[in-house]
Amino acid sequence: MNPAPLFSRSTFRFSCLALAAASLCAPLHAQQAHDEEEESADEATLQTVAVTSARAQGLAPQTVEAGTFRGASIMEVPSTVNVITREALEQQAVEGLYEAVRNTAGVTRQQNAGDTYDQIVIRGMEVQNRTNYRLNGAMPIMNFSQVPMEDKERVEVLKGASALYYGFTSPAGVVNYVTKRAGKAPVTSLGLRVNEHGSAVASVDVGHRFGAQEQFGLRVNAAGGVLGSHLDGVRKGRRAFFSAAFDWRASSRLLLKADFEYDKRRITEQAAVGLPAAVNGRITLPRPVDPTRLVGPAWADFEATTINALLRADYALNDNWALTVEAGHSEMERDRRLPIFRFARAADVATGQGFIRGNMQTIRLNPTWGAPSCSAASKAALWSTASPWA
Fold first, then answer.
1. CATH classification at residue 220
2. C or N terminus of the chain, fewer CB within 10 Å?
3. 291: helix, strand or coil
4. Digits of tens for pLDDT over the chain (390 positions)?
5. How far is CA 310 from the centre of its chain?
6. Can you tell me the distance from the alpha carbon of 21 to that of 146, in angstroms, rounded to the nearest whole number?
7. In the chain, where do the E strands start and end?
8. How far apart are CA 304 and CA 188, in angstroms?
9. How far is 348 from 6, CA to CA, in rounded Å?
10. In this structure, are residues 205 and 182 in contact, taking their beta carbons and an 8 Å threshold?
């Protein structure tokens, strides 16, 4: 009897197939391991790629021109600065200072109306009309007439510590106006602004660069028309405005700039209502006056002419230092007939009886750098007796 074989033919055939499969899989696993090693090596050698881009100004500004921060990033300025860009000015249809800064925290208007000009306060402190307003971060300009907005690229409000940058001024802050300049893309636009009070002011804005290397730039703005009033029975005012901003890239290191502004306007001014004297430490407020009624005389006009001129030269000494030289002149002439209604006695608040006293003011303002000079002549007189509520 023959003993049984240790391996049958079928078993041997299966073992050979398994061995062949194992021999085929071994190179496959080795190849996969090799590929994984190469992938890990490639991943280790990859470098981090950072993509950066400067966002357009839009409603969120990138730089500041007020104080000593000329062109500095707004994130690096160690002061509270609010910037109203050109896009924001256009979207709000801004015609004056307060309309530009009315959404700025801590800024309010300190007068009864803004028809003639806007006098503002910052954080409860008065902004001085002679020293706290600047053009292009440098020249002091007068705020005794509405500042034109057609040629302004932006409005900056530097809050607090303004005396550190501009000498003897109110610590409330500084309002800085930055003018438009010719950019790489040419600009030509016409506009017409009207409102429900009868105002109609046409404007033109033209900006181009020229020269063999476009080293010259010119931006011209002009506006003019009639100024309506919310008051009934008053004649329409008039306005004329012109500005020009010129720059010349004289060399790779030298940049010259020149700015000129002219604004003339006339409008009938509403009378102010003075508060009565305090009785036992209390002031009785009068009833509100009809906002459409002219309290003062119809000939109480406000007329103002403003001229600003500024020259600037920037010379790059090296990549880190630059020399800036500036010179300018600002003057203003204002003829104002300011009516003020006052109560003769505190008891007259109930009847509304009183009198109108006014000042005929003639002001000539010719400021120099940091030291504005003013010549003014005023004449006070009793104009009439009246009641704003009659």
1. 2.40.170.20
2. N
3. coil
4. 444 444 444 444 444 444 444 444 445 444 555 555 555 555 556 678 777 665 555 677 777 777 667 777 777 777 788 899 999 999 988 999 999 999 888 999 887 667 889 999 998 888 988 889 999 988 999 899 999 999 999 999 988 766 567 777 788 888 999 999 999 999 999 999 999 889 999 999 999 999 999 999 999 999 999 999 988 888 899 999 999 999 999 999 999 999 999 999 999 988 888 888 888 888 888 888 888 888 888 888 899 999 999 999 999 999 889 999 999 999 999 988 888 888 877 777 777 777 777 777 777 776 555 444 555 555 555 555 556 666
5. 19
6. 94
7. 63-64, 72-73, 80-85, 107-109, 120-122, 125-126, 133-135, 139-140, 152-159, 173-179, 187-194, 200-210, 216-227, 237-249, 254-268, 272-273, 301-316, 322-342, 354-368, 371-386
8. 29
9. 133
10. no
Its domain, for residue 217, covers: 63-386
Please, which residues have CB within 8 angstroms of residue 34's CB and are 6 or more apart in sequence?
A: none
Q: Which of 217, 197, 244 is nearest to 95 (CA)?
A: 197
Asked if residue 208 is part of any domain, the answer here is yes
Phi, psi of 28 (to 5 degrees): -65, -45
Give the closest residue to 118 by CA, choosing from 177, 160, 61: 177
Looking only at the bridges linking them, the beta strands covering 72-73 and 139-140 are unpaired
**Residue for token pair 């007189």:** 381
- For 11, the enclosing helix (H) or strand (E) is helix 9-45
Strand duo 107-109 + 301-316: pairing: unpaired
CB-CB contact of 113 with 343 (8 Å) = no
Distance between CA atoms of residues 272 and 305, nearest Å: 23
Indicate whether 47 belongs to any domain: no
Kindly report the backbone phi and psi dihedral angles of residue 255, in degrees, each rounded to the nearest multiple of 5, phi listed first.
-125, 125
User: Is 11 among the domain residues?
Assistant: no
Tokens of 230: 């919310």
| Tokens at 158, concatenated | 């530097």
* Cβ-based neighbours of 115, under 8 Å, separated by 6 or more: 229, 267, 269, 270, 302
Rounded CA-CA distance 80/70 in Å is: 15
Query: Using an 8 Å Cβ cutoff, are 382 and 337 in contact?
Result: no
Count of domains for the chain: 1
Residue 10 lies in a domain: no
